[in-house]
Amino acid sequence: MDLSRKTDYALRILAELIRDEGQTVLSVRTAAKKNDVPYSFARSIQHDLTLAGIIQSTRGAHGGMQLMIDPKVTTLLEVVEACQGPVAISNCDWNGPDGGPCLRATHCAFNPIWCGATRMLRDYLSSVTLHDVVFGTKAPSLPEGYWSSSAFETLRTPAMENLQPEV
């Protein structure tokens, strides 16, 4: 998974809005300048964040952006996915013809690895809110025991148990 430049810039702009909690409206130009975001790109991001319901945009001399989400409950994962779509290491979970799991999922030795890595990344990004990140009140983390070998065993399907290495 690559974090797009658009998502990086959107997070910088949102961080500025979160830091300026007392200010009701922040101009796009000010947010862009403070965060080294090209103004034209910031305008495009403002439009996308408005469509996603993350901010409200007001036109005019006293216009700008205003948060529409609660940064204390909105996770980093939610914003990243609003900006660039589902977070995934691979498309093993939805590569089938009907948008379901990959047709080889039941007999592919790598499927549980890629699906587990996706779950791990999603859990990591959803473990912190925007407020946590901006103010440094909590670091992202994974639950205790996440790295145990038994966690991998639950990912294996019965069909995979029949896979034997060729000698």
Question: What does this protein look like?
Answer:
The radius of gyration is 20 Å and the shape is elongated. Helix 1 (5-19) packs across helix 3 (39-51), helix 1 (5-19) packs across helix 4 (76-84) and helix 2 (28-34) crosses helix 3. It has a two-stranded antiparallel ribbon. The two termini are 35 Å apart. 44% of the residues lie in helices and 5% in strands. It has helices at residues 5-19, 28-34, 39-51, 76-84, 111-125, 130-135, 149-153, 158-161; strands at 55-58, 64-67. The chain has 167 residues and is mainly α. It has eight helices and two strands.
CATH class: Mainly Alpha
Radius of gyration: 20 Å
Mind describing the biggest β-sheet?
2 strands, antiparallel
For the largest beta sheet, what order do the strands appear in spatially? 1-2
Fourth CATH level, the homologous superfamily = Winged helix-like DNA-binding domain superfamily/Winged helix DNA-binding domain
How many helices? The count is 8
The CATH level-2 architecture is identified as Orthogonal Bundle
Number of DSSP strands?
A: 2
SSE order in H/E notation?
A: HHHEEHHHHH
Topology-level CATH name: Arc Repressor Mutant, subunit A
Distance between the termini: 35 Å
Basic shape? elongated
